[in-house]
Structure formats: C-alpha cells, structure tokens
Amino acid sequence: MSLSARGLVVEFSGHRALDGVSLEVPSGKTLAIVGPSGAGKSTLLRVLAGLLRPASGDVALDGIDVGPLLPQRRRIAMVFQDDALFTNMTVRANLRFALRNGRTGAAGRIDETARALHVVQTLDRRPRQLSGGERQRVSIARALLSDPAALLLDEPLAHLDPELRRSVRDEVVGLRQRFAGPIVYVTHDHAEAMSVGDELAILLDGRIEDAGEPQRVYDSPASLAVARFLGDRPMNVVERNGAYLAIRPEHVRVNASGEVRGHVVRRETTGADAYVCVATPDGEITARVPASQNVPDEVALEFPETFVRRFDRRSGRAL
Length: 319
Ligand code: ADP
Fold this sequence. Notes:
The chain has helices at residues 41-49, 71-74, 91-98, 106-116, 132-145, 162-174, 190-196, 214-219, 224-229; strands at residues 3-12, 15-25, 30-34, 56-61, 64-65, 76-79, 150-154, 183-187, 199-204, 207-212, 236-240, 243-247, 253-254, 260-269, 273-280, 283-290, 298-302, 309-312. It is an alpha+beta fold.
C-alpha cells in the first residue's frame, strides 16, 4: 500500500498554505516532513487525511484517488498534536471505539496493542489520569486499532518533555514492527525528523524544497534555503566568484594553517562541543570544535573542499 499526493494546492484567503506539494510514500517507509511553524505541515496532513479539500491536486492510495472518500472511509489515520481522546471514557473504551463494530477478538487486539505501546497499565484509567507520554501512546494505539492503510503523525512529541520525547520516539520507531503501511511524520524538529524518517522532506512556505535520504539532504541540500534551515546551526554561507559557498560548522577547521583569518566574537559551549563565532572578511563564520579544544582569540579557519557546497547566486539551487 503506497500513499501519494500530486500537485496539492491550498489557499487561505489568497495565501497559499500549500503551493503544489507532491509526495510518494511506499509501504513500510516513513516520510518525515520537517519545516518551520507556518510552513504548511498541518495543512498537508489534513489534506491527506481528507479533513480539508485542496483547491487542486489529489491524494491516492495505491494509485487510486481517495478524493471522493470521506475521512472515515479513507483508512488514513491521523494522530494529532493534541491527542483527541474521549475524556469521559476509560482508555480501554477509547481503544474499543476505534475498532469497527462486530469485530471478533476485539479484547485480545486491544490488550496486545496496548502491550506493544506500553500502556496496558492505563487501560482502566481515564485520559486525564495519564501522563502526556501515555496519552500520546494511547492515541497511536487507537490509530493502529482502526486498521489504517496509512498513518499520519502530526508533531506527536511536540508537548512532551525531553525525556518523554526520547521514549515516545523509540515507540514511534518501534511502530514499524506493528504497522507495515506508509507513515507520514510531521515535526519542526530536524533531529527528530532525521531519526524517524527513512526519507526526509523539507517543507518551506508551502513547497517541498528538498526530499530524499536524510543524510543526503543534510550533507548536500538542494537549495540555499534548506542549507540555512536544516541543522542545529545553519550552514555558514559566503559569497564568492558569483556563487554562494556553504559549509557546516562541524566541518570548519580552526587551526594555524587556515586560509581565512579572523577574530573570535562569541563562544558558546554545549557540553561536548563549543560553537565559536569568528568575524572574518567574508562575514561571521561559526565553527564547531570539541569543548576541550583551546581556541585563541585570533584564529585561522580552513574549509575542507569536500565539505563545501555551492549554490547558484540567483536561484539559490545547488550547483
Ligand atoms: P504548520 O503546521 O507548518 O505550522 P499550518 O499548516 O498550520 O503550518 O499553516 C500554514 C499556513 O496556513 C499558515 O500561514 C497559517 O496561518 C495558515 N492557515 C492554516 N490554517 C488556516 C485556516 N484555517 N485559515 C486561515 N489560514 C490558515
């Protein structure tokens, strides 16, 4: 079962929230979509789920247009950022609700799915009596029990604290053992996107700017906009010979033999590493060095050629 979309356009009072988005997620694969707030991520998921009708474009399962189908008939389940569990029912009743009527062995499936998502202990409680992480896992369990053909996750970890995020993220990666269909996972956190996605798509301003294997997108972004968006810190960009050259902070070398001289204007340590911001004739360049490296105020920077990416000055596309 594959999920695909072609040429999706959504306009809100003249503003294009989606500006021709196409994607294809094969069975068994997770597409992680990352973009800043307002990029159109939720809008895209709502269109895929059938909750919002696009001005143009279509959505298909295994090549069959699902446009005419109501959300509940599409078999595309969506887990929302704010879980939408029924607060007046127990977790078990919430999960039972997801199963279609007349299903045999329902109790067994509920227990089994709850076990897989580590929420068995919550089955007889009400959603209010669960932690944020437990509620998210129950929401995922509920989506799975609805027997979806495809699963959409909208920032499922957005409201969780860092420790919980780690465990629910493991859960999401582990989902793969329970669910064989395509998954679309949306987040504004690039590290999360890279760790859950088999494929990564960068959504900026309603357009997919780049898509592909996560490491490729990180190493060789298709455009300057992606280079500036993706990463703990954006790529350093300088203009030379009519093109933009970009390099990641972790690839800039700080040593005595470097070609570009500069003066350290800021230092920031993250524990294992330090980011050193250097004023140079080309502008400010940030280098990441081990926290233990002693960096003097006057430095020379080296940009190893293999890590330098070039972008067209006018279009911003990779050269
Ligand atoms: P994201 O999920 O990436 O933060 P959204 O899909 O929520 O982005 O929003 C994309 C753009 O569309 C934003 O500019 C947002 O303000 C706008 N938008 C979203 N929903 C509506 C709506 N119902 N009415 C008007 N504008 C909307």
